[in-house]
Amino acid sequence: MGPCAGSDGDLMFEKDSVKITRAEEFTFVPLFKNGRSWTNGWKTADNKDPKRRAIALGIMHILQPHRTTYVKAWQVGFFERVMKGNRMHWARIFDDLVWINASARWARILANHLTAYLVNFYRGMGLLTKEEEKRFLKKRKVLAVESSEDCCRGWWDCGEHHGDPMPPPPDKEVNSEVATKSSEEGSKTLEIGFPDFLQDSVFPLLKYLDTKREKYIKRAPSLTAECAAAKATLQEQEDQLCEKEIECEVLQLNLAKKSERCAELEEVCRSLRATNENAQKVIVDLCGRLEKSKEAYEAAVKHVERLIAIAGKREQMHGEKLAKVEARRVEEARFAEDLWGKIAEAKTAEEELCSKIAELMNERDKKFKHAEKLTASLPEKIWKHEGELTDWAKKLADCESARSLEV
C-alpha cells in the first residue's frame, strides 16, 4: 500500500501490462469458473466502468505487485458501494471483497498467488473449518533458500496447497530429515497476522478510497454547473443562428424582388425604345405625304396661272372669239372656282394636317423628352441598383461567414 495510500492520482493499470505466458495463464484457471472464457483472463462484461475496474485491479496489484492480477465482478461490486457512499460493516466489506466458494476453490491444487491472502481473510472472518485451520497454520516456517528450485519447493511448503503434496523434482529429491536440518540452519519465521494485514493494507486503502470519493463528490456540482452553462450557451448560439438564417432569407427575398424590379425596368426601356422608333417612322411617312401635297398644290397653281395667261392672250388676239373665250372663260372661271374650292379644301386639309403634324411633333417631343429623361435616369438607377446588389451580396456573405463560424 505504501506510496499509493493517500495519493491524489488515479490508479490505472492497462491490459497490455499483464505479460504472462500461456502456461502461466493456465495456472490461474481456479480463479475463474469457466476457465479461459474471457480475453486473457479479464472479465469485462460485468466491469463496464473502466475507472472502477482500474481501482479493483489496482488493489490486487498492491496486494501482490510482483504477480499478475485478474479482476472479477465480485471485486467491482465492493467499490461500487464504496464510491456511492454506502456505509458497510467490516464483515460485509470482507464478504464483498474476498468471499469465494471455499469448497470449490480448494478442491484442486492451489497454484495461485492470492491463496495465502484469501486464507488469512477467511481466518479473520471465522470461515475456516477445523481441518482447514490445521492445513493452513497461522504461523509457519519458511526455508530460506537461494536457488530457484528450492524457492519453488519452499513456496509449496508454506501451506498453499491441500493435503496432497507436490512431487519433488526427479533430479533433486530430498527427504524430511535433510529439509529439517536445512531449516534449523537457516530458517526464518514468517508471521502473517490478520490485524497487521488490516493495519498495513486495508485501512490505508479505505482512506485512499474515501479521499477519492470526496474528490469526485466535490467535482460533481461544478461539472453540473458547467454542463448547464454549456447547454445555455449552445441554446443561445442556436437562437442566434436561427435569427441569422431568418435575416439571410429576408435578404434573399429582397434581393429577388430587386432583381425582378430591375428586369421590369429593363423591359419598360425596351418598349419605350420600340415606341420611339415607331413614332419616328410615322413622322417620316407624314413628312413624305406633306411634300407630295405641296408638289400637287404648286402644280395646280401653275396650271391656273397658265390658263389665265392663255385667256388674256386670246382675248387680246381674237376679238371674234371673245364670246367663246368669255364663255370658255366663265367655264374656266367656274372651273377655277371649283379648283379654288378644292384648293381651299386642300388648304383646310393642309392646315388640319399641319395641326396634326404639330400635335404629333409635340407628342414626339414629349416622348423624346420622356425617353431622354428615362435614358438619363437609367444609368443612375442602374448604378444605384448595382450598389444595392453589392450591399446585399456583402450582407449575404457576412451572414454565410457568421453561420459557418457558429457551426
Structural account:
With 407 residues, the chain is mostly helical. It folds into two domains: 2-220, no CATH class; 244-406, Helix Hairpins. It has eleven helices and two strands, in the order αααααααβααβαα. The chain has helices at residues 22-26, 50-63, 73-83, 90-98, 102-105, 115-125, 130-135, 148-156, 176-186, 194-317, 322-406; strands at 139-143, 187-191. It has a two-stranded antiparallel ribbon. Helix 3 (73-83) runs antiparallel to helix 4 and helix 10 (194-317) packs antiparallel against helix 11 (322-406). It is rod-shaped, with a radius of gyration of 62 Å. The chain starts with 21 loop residues before the first helix and ends with a helix.
Give the proportion of residues in helices: over 70%
Number of strands: 2
Rg is 62 Å
Strand arrangement within the widest β-sheet reads: 1-2
Low-confidence stretches: 1-20, 28-49, 67-75, 88-114, 140-192
Give a short account of the largest sheet.
Answer: 2 strands, antiparallel
List the defining traits of the structure above.
407 residues, mainly alpha, Helix Hairpins, 2 strands, rod-shaped
Question: In terms of topology, how is this protein built?
Answer:
Layout: H1 22-26, H2 50-63, H3 73-83, H4 90-98, H5 102-105, H6 115-125, H7 130-135, E1 139-143, H8 148-156, H9 176-186, E2 187-191, H10 194-317, H11 322-406
Antiparallel strand pairs: 1-2
Helix pairs in contact: 2-3, 3-4, 4-6, 10-11
Task: Give a quick summary of the entry.
It is built from eleven helices and two strands; from the N terminus they run αααααααβααβαα.
